[in-house]
Design goal:
The protein is of the alpha/beta class. The strands form two sheets. Strands 6-7-8-3-9-10 form a six-stranded mixed sheet, with helices on both faces. Strands 2-1-4-5 form a four-stranded antiparallel sheet. The chain starts with a helix and ends in a 5-residue tail after the last helix. Strand 4 and strand 5 form a beta hairpin. Helix content is 38%, strand content 25%. The protein is globular, with a radius of gyration of 19 Å. The chain has a single domain, classed as Rossmann fold (3-Layer(aba) Sandwich). It contains eleven helices and ten strands. The structure holds adenosine-5'-triphosphate (ATP). The site of adenosine-5'-triphosphate has 13 residues, from strand 2 and helix 2.
């Protein structure tokens, strides 16, 4: 192998942030995800698409062990973050979820002030040595979530008093505050109006300069707008994974073709 090929290979391997191999998920007897293999690249937006019930959210929740909270759920196979098995018994799920943050479908701010919503994670993970550093993290996170200008004069007010779109950006700021390496978003715009959706989509595009974003979406237009990679799931199988442009214009699998042309789902 020549030097250039060796270099290209090294670069492409370090680009992989999360690697999943032969992942199976069961809810009791139900086999919800079958043999999923996928590599999530660093500093890239990856969209998970597919009909309702195909397993998108289930797989997303595997990536930060959120399924641990569901008693009937069993995960098999290997999922590695930077090459390390996240299901290893030495891994603390709370620490893992600071590295692999999550934003949910419905904005779920804590019943605390705007400031404390964002400061919560940095406080429990000891990311600030004093109040000045904490203030800096809160401001940077709120700026990063494109919310600072709207809330800087009302930081002590409850987060739950913000509009739906602002609450979702607050939840993004809360996730960003722990300096995650990956941000998982489960239909983050489904409760938002078109203007708030567009703000969150712009934000996703900015966030990928800092870390990987994985987004579950029912909107193919949204997947096409925000992602560089797309994974199409169907009946618990990962049918096709590739560049978003290719998935939407030249899908290989007839099931992907049927879904994107609106014949299934
Ligand atoms: N907590 C649970 N207990 C039992 N079965 C579950 C649970 N969560 C999901 N399932 C089942 O697992 C399968 C995959 O569900 P999942 O929510 O991952 O699909 P999805 O593609 O995200 O669907 P949607 O687009 O409707 O949100 C479905 O058959 C669902 O009924």
């Amino acid at each position: 192998m020549n030097d250039m090929r060796i270099l290209e290979r090294a670069v492409s391997q370090t680009d992989i942030k999360i690697s999943a191999r032969k992942v199976q998920v069961y809810y009791g007897e139900k086999h919800a995800l079958k043999d999923v293999d996928v590599d999530i690249q660093d500093k890239t937006v990856t969209a998970f698409i597919g009909p309702s019930g195909c397993g998108k959210s289930t797989f997303l929740r595997c990536l930060n062990r959120m399924n641990d909270t569901i008693d009937s759920c069993r995960v098999e196979g290997r999922i590695a973050l930077d090459g390390e098995d996240i299901y290893d018994k030495r891994v603390d799920p709370v620490q893992l979820r600071a590295r692999v943050g999550m934003v949910f479908q419905k904005p779920n701010p804590f019943p605390k002030s705007i400031y404390d919503n964002v400061a919560y994670g940095p406080r429990i993970h000891g990311l600030a040595r004093n109040r000045t550093e904490l203030d800096e993290i809160v401001e940077k996170s709120l700026r990063g979530a494109a919310l600072w200008n709207e809330v800087k004069d009302r930081l002590a007010e409850p987060g739950t008093g913000l509009s739906g779109g602002q609450q979702q950006r607050l939840c993004i700021a809360r996730a960003v505050a722990t300096q995650p390496e990956v941000l998982l978003m489960d239909e983050p715009c489904s409760a938002l109006d078109p203007i708030a959706t567009s703000q969150v989509e712009d934000l996703i595009d900015q966030l990928r300069s800092e870390f990987s974003v994985v987004i579950v979406t029912h909107s193919m237009q949204q997947a096409a707008r925000v992602s560089q990679k797309t994974a199409f799931f169907h009946l618990g199988n990962l049918v096709e994974f590739g560049n978003t442009d290719d998935i939407f214009t030249r899908p290989h699998d007839p099931r992907t073709e049927s879904y994107i042309s609106g014949r299934i789902g």
